[in-house]
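Submission sheet (multi-component)
Chains listed below:
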Amino acid sequence: MSPIAMRSRPRPHARRRAVRRHRLVALAAAVLTAGAVLTGTSGPAQAVDQPISQGRPVTASSLENAAYPASLAVDGNEGSRWSSAAADNQWIRVDLGGNAAIDRIVLNWEAAYASAYQIQVSANGNDWLTVRQVTGSTGGRQTLDLSATGRYVRVLATARATVWGVSLWEFQVYGALGTQGVPPGAVRVAEFLADCPYSHRLPDDPIVFPGLPGASHMHSFFGNAATDADSDLGRLEKSGGTCNPAADVSSYWVPTLYADNAPVEPTGTTFYYLGEGVRDDVIAQTQPFPRGLRIVAGNARATGPNDNSIARWSCLHAGEVNPSHDFVNCPAGSMLESYLDFPQCWNGKDLDSADHKSHMSYPVNGACPATHPIPVPKLRQVLRYPVTGDPSRLRLASGPGYTMHGDFFNVWPAAEMARRVRDCIDPIVKCGANGTA
Amino acid sequence: MRRAFAGAALAALAVCGGLAAVARPAERSAPAAAAPVVAAPAPYNPTDTAWLQLLVPMTEQNIRLAELTAARAASPELRALAAEIAEGHRTELARLRELTRLGGVTGDNPHTGHDMPGMTTAAEYIEAEHATGADFDRLAALHLREYLEQSVRLAASESTAGSADAARRLAADLHRTRSAQLTRLGP
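Outcome: structure written.
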């Protein structure tokens, strides 16, 4: 999908099913909330917060003997168990019956526990993504909070704590299946979005210059209203923002655009979350962004137009003007547009890195490389500035047009992000800001 | 039932604690680097890292401007001050680089090298280079002042938001020396 095609893409189906789906979503959210509140307190939670893995089809790499089948790990009975043969790399997997937004996994290990293991998810039961690695485990009952999507969930025991195999009293997956399948009439584009108008300007950058107010060139901030040099996940999640949906309190920022040395803020500010850029089977495996993930895209240090292969400038409703890495001259009645695609492959471990880029990668040949194996949505930032005409009067706070770059600090509530990835990205369904088709 | 939930909460904490370390580059680098090296690396937080990444190129750049000023200024006072700044900065730069090395800080700051507050742009440097007499002195003092003000501001932030003792001590030193240089430079 070229940037140019994006802008004329119609959104005819955004509202049709919104009302019906909204009720279902509200109900699901209520159940989740109740479960979360009750879990920490007392027994009745069990009645409300059932694992979605219970009684589901389950298979294992091996059995110690016929008395310990895999099914006993998902039967809801803490007194019966699955036990593997005495070898490393044994696994148990459960089929949830549909693509689920997974928020928690509980493992109750018998005395024969795994000292190291991985939690893996899959859309098809063949291709596995490791969404959590645990080492130095001491067994017992373990609760893993995570944010993942998948139909199949597998525990792969990479190292045993004893000479025996590994054994689980219970293997419980918590989350929500949602409505399965592609809604009738849905547009088959993997997409949801947030519209986040301009919030404020500061010479701050909480990713590149954390704790150093005034260290940066001027930035224009969108979304979270509290973003400054001291922002971290804890502070940001306490603040509201400008986004539709309001649930998205993420921070997005770019160098400020100046026309004749006066700042100009974009009046179109859409942040698309897309599946495109990888093969369809990889899109089906796309995982939610982890909370607190920070990404910088584009090249603030570009010294020429060819240093910057990602950010592009174009003109709204003026396709005759070729897109460029540098500013373009837009005809009257048009608007200057900036397109920036963020990398969509994550290394699965780090929420940031020293250069703020190397924990993420762009895809290679339609898939995520082995170094960055987790596909996440492709964030596409589309900004429309009320500026036309001679671009020689334009500059960015970072320099010429080709220094355009964008920063993203993910503060989506985990359940809101996971639901959208489950319902919009994985099944390739075009959704609006509310995350429904 | 209550006991079971308490146990679950503890297990969750233990697991999360272990994993939290994985998500933080600063903490993660510690065990890997500690094994073969004599000195254990300082526990740098992201502010320490960003401050060092920024201060190394900023200081390098200002040494160039200070040397130019020491050679070209019409005012003997400005020449003397610029020579002192250049000399002091060379010592500070060595300390900055040593801390960068000890902390295993890799990678340039992705925002340095272009129009950053307090940094003299290439165009500004060329303009100063071509100026003479009082014009040169005015431009040189302007850029030195902008640079010193910004580095004092950053040193104050590093002193409060940084975590590595050595980096915070250096920031305190820079704050003191550069504030004094600003005073001598005048308004």
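Remark: The first helix of chain A runs from residue 3 to 7.
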